[in-house]
Amino acid sequence: MNLYESSPVTGRFSFTSVLDRWTWSDGMFTLHGMEPGEVVPTGVLFLRHVHPDDRSAVEQVIEASTSQVAGCEYRIVELDGKVRTVALTVSADPDGTTTGHLLDVTAARNKAVAAGVNEQLALALESRAVIDQAKGVVMSTFGIDSETAFRCMVLISQHRNVRVRAVADKVIAAASLAGGADEDVLAQVSIALRTVAIATTASEETHVAGEGPQVTRTA
Fold first, then answer.
1. Same domain for 120 and 100?
2. 125 and 95 in one domain?
3. pLDDT score of 55
4. Strands (E), the chain
5. Residue 54 vs residue 217, higher pLDDT
6. Which burial class, exposed, middle or buried, applies to 18 when counting CB atoms under 10 A from its CB (0-12, 13-18, 19+)?
7. 146-160 helix and 106-142 helix, angle to the nearest 10 degrees
8. Checking CA distances to 203, which of 17, 72, 138, 178 falls within 20 to 30 Å?
9. Closest by alpha carbon to 13, among 106, 104, 102?
10. Residue 41: domain span
11. Whose CA is closest to 50, among 27, 26, 84, 90?
């Protein structure tokens, strides 16, 4: 079974001084990609395996733990380069010993990220379908091709400072309710279509002018 798919790993550590030798449970070694007893645990070793971007936050938690319960979430970089996400809690015991606990939350974070990606993908696919449907309405109404229809919708979205999906929703809604695009939508698309036509013509003229006359030289 993959280590990241098994039950969450927990670890416990303690120290009396950050600079002294620390005590690690077997789970602490596992979380750092090591065998129990493989190395001598110290504060330097602990921080060395904290992701560089998270190190400052972890140092602040360790420092604050002498007077209060403190914690954060950070990433561990194992010996082989693998990265884990762990939840850290640290507190000071009455005898002056600082005790901390780590909980591996990698699987939970990966699932959350995957769920977010899947949701965004589903929204993107839905938006694509709606935009394609709206393009079809514009194409059939004005007798233009797909690319031109899309460029018109993009121009409208830029003019109104809204997403193309919002323009597509309006086109489809207008066509559904009125049995065809209403006057407001027709006017917007007409203006956009004229703009596209002007831009296309200007681009073609610039291209032709740039070619210049062809001169044939003879010896």
1. no
2. no
3. 94
4. 10-15, 23-24, 70-77, 83-92, 98-104
5. 54
6. middle
7. 110
8. 138
9. 102
10. 3-104
11. 84
What is the tally of structural domains in the chain?
2
CB 60 within 8 A of CB 45: no
Question: Are 98 and 126 in a shared domain?
Answer: no
pLDDT in tens, 115-127: 666 666 666 667 7
- Using only the alpha carbons of the chain, give its radius of gyration: 31
99 and 30 in a single domain? The answer is yes
Average pLDDT over residues 121-143: 77
**Are 174 and 182 spatial neighbours (Cβ–Cβ below 8 Å)?**
yes
- Asked if 25 contacts 41 with a C-beta cutoff of 8 angstroms, the reply is no
CATH number for the domain harbouring residue 34: 3.30.450.20
Q: Which residues of 141-152 are buried (b: 16+ CB within 10 A; e: fewer)?
A: bbebeeebbbbb
Last residue of a domain, one of 104, 137, 164: 104
The residue among 215 and 148 whose pLDDT is bigger is 148
pLDDT of 113 > 60? The answer is no
Residues 84 and 142 in one domain: no
SS3 143: coil
CB 108, CB 84: distance < 8 Å: no
In a domain, 216, yes or no: no
Average pLDDT, the chain: 77
Nearest residue to 83 via CA among 60, 113, 61, 59: 113
- pLDDT for residue 148 is more than 60: yes
